[in-house]
Write the structure tokens for this entry.
Amino acid sequence: MAATRTFSIIKPDATRRNLTGAVTRMLEEAGLRVVASKRILMSREQAEGFYGVHRERPFFNDLVTFMTSGPVVVQVLEGENAVQRNRDVMGATNPENAEPGTIRKELAESIEANSVHGSDSEENARIEIDFFFKPEEIVG
Ligand code: ATP
Ligand code: MG
């Protein structure tokens, strides 16, 4: 099967605890390759745009505040079946429900401060990659 791409964010709870390397290692051990990466401080506008689908959810404002509370690392990951592979190694949204060995089970603090984001479909992966990266910033 050909390699595909997905989009990942190492969230502020993880960068704050110096876990950028620990998260990336788990992604790499799951068979994903980091083909683009940058550490940024998301603006409120960026976070609101990125999480626009959740605008009506009760946790939206807290989520935007959290995602802008510290640096994040945005990444493009490449591998076979990258979207699903990344979702599998991330684990369930709520770390309490995540399987042992997943990033969220091993590292996350709470349902909000859950250490990583990963695209949920190939279509959203393309949209999310375009939101943060220029084509020349991705080197496979
Ligand atoms: P992500 O989109 O970040 O990869 P996800 O797809 O597992 O996570 P979503 O349902 O898309 O989960 O929710 C987006 C993010 O919003 C979650 O990762 C989490 O940080 C936050 N979130 C989701 N549900 C809740 C909740 N009930 N309370 C607080 N925060 C929540
Ligand atoms: Mg999601």
About this structure: Residues 122-132 form the longest helix (11 residues). The chain has a mean pLDDT of 98.
